[in-house]
Structures are given as C-alpha cells and as structure tokens.
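Supplementary material to the annual report.
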Amino acid sequence: MAVITYRDALNQALREEMQRDPKVFLMGEEVGTYQGAYKVSRGLLDEFGPTRIVDTPITELGFAGVGVGAAMVGLRPVIEMMTMNFALLALDQIINSAAKMRYMSNGQIGVPIVVRGPGGAALQLGAQHSQALEAHYAHIPGLKVVMPATPADAKGLLKSAIRDDNPVIFIEGEMLYNTKGEVPDGEHIVPLGVALVKQEGTDVTLISHSKSVAVAMKAAEQLKAENISAEVIDLRTIRPLDVATILASVAKTHRCVVVEEGWPFAGVGAQVVHTIQEQIFDELDAPVLRVTGVDVPMPYNKVLERAAKADPAKVVAAVKKVMYLE
Amino acid sequence: MAVITYRDALNQALREEMQRDPKVFLMGEEVGTYQGAYKVSRGLLDEFGPTRIVDTPITELGFAGVGVGAAMVGLRPVIEMMTMNFALLALDQIINSAAKMRYMSNGQIGVPIVVRGPGGAALQLGAQHSQALEAHYAHIPGLKVVMPATPADAKGLLKSAIRDDNPVIFIEGEMLYNTKGEVPDGEHIVPLGVALVKQEGTDVTLISHSKSVAVAMKAAEQLKAENISAEVIDLRTIRPLDVATILASVAKTHRCVVVEEGWPFAGVGAQVVHTIQEQIFDELDAPVLRVTGVDVPMPYNKVLERAAKADPAKVVAAVKKVMYLE
Amino acid sequence: MASTTKPQRTSLDAATADQYRHYLRQMLQIRRFEEKAGEAYSLGKIGGFCHLYIGQEAVAVGSMASLRKDDYITCSYREHGQALARGITSRAIMAELFGKAAGCSGGKGGSMHLFDASLGFLGGHGIVGGHIPLTTGMAFAAKYNGTDQVGVCYFGEAAVNQGAFHEALNMAALWKLPAIYICENNRYGMGTALERASAIYDISERACSYDMANEVVDGQEVLAVKAAMDRAVKRAREEKHPTLLEVRTYRFMGHSMSDPIHGHYRTKEEVEEHRKRDPIALWSRTLIEDGVMTEETVKALDADVMTEIEDAYKFAEEAPDPDPSELFANVYAPEVTHNG
Amino acid sequence: MASTTKPQRTSLDAATADQYRHYLRQMLQIRRFEEKAGEAYSLGKIGGFCHLYIGQEAVAVGSMASLRKDDYITCSYREHGQALARGITSRAIMAELFGKAAGCSGGKGGSMHLFDASLGFLGGHGIVGGHIPLTTGMAFAAKYNGTDQVGVCYFGEAAVNQGAFHEALNMAALWKLPAIYICENNRYGMGTALERASAIYDISERACSYDMANEVVDGQEVLAVKAAMDRAVKRAREEKHPTLLEVRTYRFMGHSMSDPIHGHYRTKEEVEEHRKRDPIALWSRTLIEDGVMTEETVKALDADVMTEIEDAYKFAEEAPDPDPSELFANVYAPEVTHNG
Ligand SMILES: Cc1ncc(C[n+]2csc(CCOP(=O)(O)OP(=O)(O)O)c2C)c(N)n1
Ligand SMILES: Cc1ncc(C[n+]2csc(CCOP(=O)(O)OP(=O)(O)O)c2C)c(N)n1
Ligand SMILES: [Mg+2]
Ligand SMILES: [Mg+2]
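Predicted assembly:
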C-alpha cells in the first residue's frame, strides 16, 4: 500500500476506470494539454488521447449538457468542473436534465455521469471562488453527492462513483489535493452511502465531511487532552446519507456537534440535525450544535477569511456547550 | 378594503411602486405585450410603456445579469422569471453577482433587485416545471427570500421587497394567483423578516410558508374537530427567518410540525428544526417532524402527483405522532 | 430566403409513391392526433401544459424521413409530432398524455416528456434550449464510439437566444460532431415575435459564429424539408459536420392549450394568411396533381387515420393509472453490486 | 486583419504631446505595478489568484482614454491594468492585493474584485463571462435614464464561448444599448489556445450573429486602440449602438502567478516572438522617433513611476488589516425604515 496524495489517488481512480471501461471519458476545462488545473488528470492525455481526455471551451452549462447527453446514450462521462463554483452555471443541466431523466423516462434512460471538481474555499480566493455548495445538490432527488476526505476514499469513492448508474456529484477539496495517505493499489472500492467512524469515542459525536473531517479530528485531539472522548464520523457520502451510522453513534454518546464548511442556512448539517432529533430524540442529552462556515460571502483578507471558517477551537467550544461544561 | 386575487395584489404592488419610483422597472419573458405568462403584469405595458415594462428574449442568465447590472448603477429592477424552475439558469448571476456584490465591493455597490416568479408545483406540469427550490436561495448570505401566502401579503411584501436595498428572491405560487382575500388599498407595507401567527393554539405549532400555509390551516381545522388546538405560523419571509416568533410559539406548545412544499433533504424545514432544537431544546416534548414534498422528481400522473405533495392528512398524522397519540 | 422549389418528381416509382403517401398519412396522423389531444385537454382528460404541433407537421415528417433507426433524437416540449413521425404509436403517446401506465413514459413524463429509448427518441424536454447540449452529447457519443449515427435536435426559434444554443453549437462545430440542429422557426416564442427577441432576422446566420453549414428551408413543404435534411444527414453521417437548419413554419394554434390562437401578439388575419399554406393541404394537392392520390384516396386515408386516433383515445382512456408504488420507482437506478 | 496603420500624428500640439506622454506613463505604471505585485506574491504578501496584465497595457490605456468620468466599466479578474488606467491609485490597488482596509475594496475583494464606485469602476469579476450581462445592464440603465453614458466591458477571448456573452450581446443589439464589448484576445484562456476553444478564429465575426458593429484592433499599439475605441464610443454615445471590439494582444506572463510563463501549451519561442511587440517599447520608440520624448525623459518617467510603485508597496505593507467586525459588514444593506 503506497502513501500518495489525494490528487494522485484521484488520478489513479480515473486511470484505472478508464483502463477498465472504454466508455469512461474525462471532459472539462484544461483536463488535457494543461494536465488539469489542479493536475488531477496529469498524464491521462498521453495515455488515453484526446478522444477520451477532452479539453472544452469555457462553457460549463454546455459541456455539462454534452456529458449528460453522452451518458443518456451509454457513455460514462466524468465531467470536471475547474471548481464547483463554476458549476452554478451548469445547475440547470444537472438538476433539470441529469437528476430527472430516469424518472421522467420511466426508467428508460439513465444518466451515469460523474460531475467532479474542488468545492469550498482554498486560501484567499475571495467571494466567488470559495463556496461550499453541496447542500444545493444534496437537496435534489435523483442525484448522489460524494465528498471524500482522504486519499484512500478519494480513490475508492471515485471508482464507485464512476461505476454508479446515477448522476453523482463528486466534490473534492483544493486544500486536500496535497494531503497524503495510504492508498491500496489497484482495485480499491469504497461503496457510496457508507459513512466511516474515524475514531471511536463515548462522550460526544462529531459529524463532518470533506475538509471538515480534519477540523473535527483536531478538535477531538484537543478534547482528549481535556478528558473528553469524541467519536468522529466522516460522512463520505452526503446523499444518500448513512443514517444508521449516525444514529448508532449518537445513541451511544447522546451528544453531537456537526462540523461543515458550508453556510448554515439549510445546509447539510441542518439535515443531519433534523434526522437525529427525529429518529432518536429521547437519546439526546443536549441540542445538536453545528459549526459551519460563517454566514457571509468569503472575504479576501487572510485574517477575516480565517475567522469565516470552521476551526477546531469553535468545535471544542460547541462540544463544551453540548456537555454543559460552561 | 377590497377583496382581490393574489395576482391582482401583486399587480397593484408593481403598479404602485412603479408610480412611486421611476427607477423601478419590470423585465422578463412575456411581461409586456402578452401581459404576463400568468397575467401578473396585466395592463402595466399600457401604463408605463416599453421602457419600463421590458419583454426579453428567453435568456434567463442574461436578463438576470442585465437586472443585476442595472441595479448596480441605481435602478431598481423587478425581474420576472416565468417560473422559478427556469431561474436555475440564472443562479450564477443571482449567487455570484447579486448576493456578493455589496460584500466584495466593501459596501460601495448594492444590488436592489427583486427576482420574482411562481415556484413549486401547479397541476401536472411534470418534473422540470414543478420544483420548490427556495432552499437554494435561502442557503446564500446576501440574499433575502420572501414567499407570500395571501393576497394581502403578496402586495405588502412585494412593496417591501422592491424598496429593500438587497437582492430579494420573491417566490409566488401559480396555484395561489387565483386565490382571493382582503387587500388594503394603496400604501400597504408588510415588513420583510416578520412571520405571522395565522391562528393561535396551544397543543402544537404548525410552521409553514407559501402554499403550504393553506395545507397547515386545513390540518388545523381537522385537528380542532379532534380537540387538538394547533397554532399556525406563516413564515412569509424565509431569509431572514423570524426566529423569535417561531421560538415563542414552540415554547408555548412544546410540539411542532413543519409543513413545506419543497424536498426534505436540507430544505427550509431542516433549518427551522435545527433552530428550534438548538435554541429551546428543553421546551420540546417531542421531536419536530416535517411534512414535505416527497423526495422524488414530480411525476406527471395526477394520482401520483397528489401523493407526492404535502397534504392535510399527512400533517394531521404528523401532529398525532408528536402528540404521541398513536 | 427559403427555397420553395419543389424537387423534381419525374420518375415516380412505386416505392417512392408509397413513401409519399406515407408522408401524407404521417402528417394526417399528427393533425388528427393533435386535434384529439386538444379535445381531450378541454375535457380535462389531459393535464398540465399541452403544446400542439398543428401547422408544423411537414417539419417532423420530412426530416424524420431522412433518419435511420439508430439515430438519436431530442425535442422540446412541443414534440407530439416528432414522436409520432418517429414511430411511437398514437396509443402510447395518447396514454402518456392521459398519464397512464401504458404511456411511452409510463405516465410519469406527460406531454412534455415523451420518451422511447428503443426508437432513439430521447425526450421531450421542458427547458427552452436545454436539450441542445444533450443532443450535442449524443453526437459526441456517436463520434466517440466510431459509429455513423447522427444526433438530431428540434427546437424553436426562441431557443436560439439561449446560452445553451451558443455553447453547444460552438462545441459541435469545433469538434466536428455529427449533429443536426433543426430550428423550427414558427415566428413566435409564446407571445414574442422573432424580431422582438433576436437581433437578427435570419436565424440561419447564427451558424456563421461557428462556421457551421446552414440552410433556410420552407417548412410547409414536406419534400423541401426532406431534401434539406438529406443534405444535412449526409454531411453529418459521412463528413462529420454539423448543420443548422432554419425551417420556416408557423404555429396554427396557440402556444399551448391555455393560449388563444391569436392573442395580443398576433392578429387573426395573420393566422389566416399562414393557414393558406397548410402543409397537409399543400402536400395533398401535390399528390393529387401528380396523380399519386385522388380526392377519394386522401379521404380514405384520413378516415383510416381517424380510426387509429379514436382507438388511441379509447385505449388511453381505459388504460390504468400507474401503480402507486411508481411514485418511488426510477428515482435512482436499481442497486447493483459492482465488484469490479 | 487588424489594422496596424498608425493614425497620423502630424499636428502634435502641446496638449496632445502631454496626452501621449501620459499614455506612456500609464503603461509604465501598469507594468511596474504588475512586476511589483508579482514580487509581492512570491513573497507571500499577496494571496489567492493573481493575474498579471503585462503585455496588454496598451489595451487598457488606449481604451480608457476615450471614456468619460461617468461611464461604467467592468472587467474580468485580470483587471489591475484597467483599474490603474481608470485612475484608482496604485496605493489603493496594492493595498487591496495585500488585503488591507485601505484597499479599494476594503481588503474584502482582493486582486479579482477591485471596485471604485466613484470612478464607475464596477468590479473585477471572477466568473468568466459573468460580467458581460452586468455591463449590458449598466448600458440599459444609461439608456433608461436618458443619459449618454456608456457601458464598457473587458473580457478575454475565452469568454466569448460562454452563453452569457451570447445572451448579452443579443440583447444589447436588439435594444440598441450604448455598450462596448472589448474582447482582449490574448490568444489563450489559461492553457487553451483560441483555436482549440472557438470554432472560428476571428472573434469579431461573432458580432454577425447580432448584427453588431465590430472591429479587429491591434492591441499592442496604444493609438490604434484609442482610435477604434473613439469610434466605438461615438457609436455608443451618439448613435446608441453597441460594438464588439476584438483587440489582439498577448499575455507575456503565465495565466496567473501559479502558472509558468510557457507551459505545456505554448513555447518559449512563441512568447519571445510576441515580446518583440511589447506595447511599451513600441510606444516609447514612437514617441522618441516623433521627438515627443527622448531616451532620457522616458527613463526619468520610468523612474518616477517606480517611485510611485515603491510607495504604493510600502503603503500597502504598512496599512492595517480590516477590523475583525468587517467580517459581518456589508453582507446586507444597513437597515433603513421605509415608510413610503
Ligand atoms: C428556460 C425556459 N424559459 C422559459 C420557458 C417557458 N416557455 C416555454 S415555451 C416558451 C417559448 C419557446 O418558443 P420557441 O423556442 O420558439 O418554441 P415554440 O414554442 O414556438 O415551438 C417559453 C418562454 C421554459 N420552458 N424554459
Ligand atoms: C465560469 C468560469 N469557468 C472557469 C473559470 C476558471 N478560469 C479563470 S480564467 C480562465 C481563462 C479565461 O481566459 P480568457 O477569457 O481568455 O481571459 P484571460 O485570462 O486570457 O485574460 C479560466 C478557465 C472561471 N473563473 N469561471
Ligand atoms: Mg417558436
Ligand atoms: Mg485570453
């Protein structure tokens, strides 16, 4: 098992799936000649040629639609959005075409497409380039939403996403691309819809996904120093949500804090909270709190930006609150 | 005080605001010559002429952007989306331009725009024409989201929305246009951000908005027959949410059911639930339940469509559940 | 301007004559189907939006005649005519309009979302312009797979102002995709006349932005449509070049069933004027003049079509609704276990 | 092809000579500013994305020279040059790049989002093509208000493939709006050469789809840009007609600070070749040849500019961060009570 970056894990998944299935192709801005804006597709043009590694004009709505159309007739497109911020332009094709085709056609036409790219903030990219919009996709029946936090999951989940017969929105993290971890060589599949208990604990459950998993883990470490035992869950797939894993944990710890990068209003965390209180209300010893991105457009200034993001200190504070320690 | 339709109430608001402020104009598909796809703008072309009642090509992204640009330099556009389903095409301009301009420009440039049109399902319009996507907008800092349920609120809230200096997403209901109610003549302003207690009650709080208010009211009536006293709240504004009114009611009834047309996953209701359990956890005698649109694309068939929608029976069942009556 | 010269029909062999009669039957089938659908709508048997194709029949019939069984087709919401011309049965379409399980989309699609994957009929689509990139993707797939299939997209003249049109046509031309974009220019997008929505009058000229082959076609003459489509299909199938066809036609009815035939946006006179070039009348006359048919055989054909449509209506009416469990079916693909 | 004939400069009166020297100063100011910004970026003093304008200076300077103080301007994220040419101070821009409170967007916008409402400089915008409809709306407002203001939009050649371009230009032409669309064709959108993204080579021809006036301009010659812009401004201000200007230029640096000058997508030789037509060198030479300046005065001017930029750098470095409370400021307008 090699230690590789999240970026290279994605690259491996793409390469292996393209080798396995000639119907898989990659399309997007700068995926070919430029080797990917974030180099996720490095080397793929050389290996698979321009028919299968397709550079597009800057036309997110258009090439998302091209992908959906190709998927409708049996190809398995992987559509790269340079960042998910730009996918706002393509939302009509994703929501009105991809998510509804199977239903409207009574099951005649499926759309086995993956739309992938980095979501959320990197560093100082400003308001238009720093959005974590997974809640938009997770809101829509017909879509699956996947957000790996580690290199191993990046590979295993992307392979599953590509093999899935549904439209899958696969959101990566620009700040995750360089992170390293052990990744099984070759066939390594992580099923969609299964959360991971990253760390067991007894006092409180921290639920997170994507970049926020690292925030939760750091918070757990700090809590440990204060003798608070946190269980950390990485959702991995946002839709379908692994409700069983969430409930099992909270039923054990009786307290929960949800950590996410996105905005609070009707965010993914709101759904998690609703599900917990709906299903195991009597197990809760305290309200479920959330630590989210601050409810403002992202500022450019470094200090303000830092303050706008979820961080371990905020998580620790929330945990103390649900434990009535202050 | 005249009894008029929701449609005519909107028409009055537009007319009065256009008479009051020469910077207000209406732009969209079929708003002029055709008198509005749903006749909301009937007569306005005659009164204000084509400079202020502007028919557009079918280019939702483009004319939304034109509206934002005009608002940036001081006009007060009202942009009609023929239905909010099509606004998915314009989401980039709404989210990346309108919602962020004031912040990115450090307060130099505001965007006093109203984007309005019918949202949600009418009857048998099928999957692409029946979506209640308010959660998408409510997720975004920088936007306000307003959804009137009655003719009086349609008028009073639209006038407030037009006078508001922020981008306001104003979502009407195709099934509401023909509903009638008393509407004050002339200056009738309903402030944004203030919910309405439609009916007082003691046993349970029903929280709803737009078309779902009628569903909640009908459920309340049925519950009354069973000696259950329901308090019904019409949110009216989704963002900013009137948290105080919600909490005051639930702190009194100790039980709550949220009713909405949209899909459940990370919907508006999820945010309402989160807020309640976060703020007044100890007041709750039962989990907060939601009655939402069923989590599927909207089917065309009449019977299936009916089953996909929130209805009073589902609300009554949920109320009985939170009252542990079954 | 649109070329209205009729192609020579000198050597009218038996097969061609059959073909020509078939075109008439198809146009009559569409006309009678739409009339019946309109009637059913007024009786409340069909719900939602319902956009009739009356007046435009020659476009669907003439263009579909050039296609092969394995080509890919997408349409807007005004697609009953194309669906029939492609070969979906009037029963399956009428049943769909009635929302019945036997409908071509199982009653879940409705008038705007007709599908028959077995015929490559890949949807009516409700978002103006939204299916233009989809077809482009299908043409991309044909090229990718190395087949000589063609992707064909039908849309209205109002759709060309959408960004999706621009983005898709640029890619189709850039990548030399076997796509045919059929703009049915019926002069209006709802209540908006072409010239109030487009900065240029000749939609075909939009092709210049992409250096794309293009043609203006008289959409009331079925053979003119067929001839132009033959050229476009050859260009796509053999030369791998896309085409934009601007087919000039006219919508004889309102935009949808809830729209009057002539409203604020066009006069009764204008509609009457255009009705003089009814594609069915024009083609019947030609066939009679050329001795391929007679007044009587035309009438008999029409009666035959009427019988079919009455049967479709009855079928649709009596067919059962989808099972309630259908509400939850086909949101996602059935779970399958992938183990490599 | 681009007309490279230099307009006659026979009657060079004092005012004109001043003007010409000013152009040089502005171009030098941009060049030195960008060089300094690049340096600061490498030192980690500037964060995020930073797109330099080096090589394109004549476009901003030549075109801004035709505008009036009350005109409206929007740009893409590559807008330091336009911001300087419009008159935002190098201090305010550098401070913005440093994220400081004294920045023209209070440190909250950054390199891609420069604003100065008092100068009608209405943003750097980060979504490719997104500001094209915005400018169209500003031109709409000018017409609506009955003023003779003009809306000017700067964007790259890759943006013309976006749907937003198509939708906006159609409306501008249809409604005869006083808008000027300046396409800075620097041959690449990131790593994608024009001809790999656009089905046609001459971007200006895209205007035909909208029957819009258009021109190809040599973007390395400041006077050529100025002359074409004068024509476009007259057309907009007086005749209320929009124009698409395709200004051919070249980006001497990488796409952004994280992109090498020549990568997989272009050769060192190509870049060197283009560098031979450095707009500042060309214009200095002209001024010297024409006797408006000398080698020495050019050098002195440059030194003066350098001093300004060093000052801006120091200013930016020493300026304070925004107050932490700024995180929550200006999400919404301050509450005001409307009572009619
Ligand atoms: C994106 C979008 N905007 C608006 C509508 C509403 N609408 C449906 S059809 C139509 C007119 C389309 O006209 P055209 O493209 O000419 O086709 P025709 O109806 O004439 O066949 C409009 C505005 C829609 N369905 N989708
Ligand atoms: C909608 C969108 N897609 C992609 C990007 C990423 N991106 C930023 S600049 C750029 C290239 C733009 O090239 P061009 O328009 O020619 O302008 P230039 O950078 O050459 O000035 C791309 C792809 C973006 N910012 N917005
Ligand atoms: Mg039309
Ligand atoms: Mg460029």
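Chain C has a mean pLDDT of 95.
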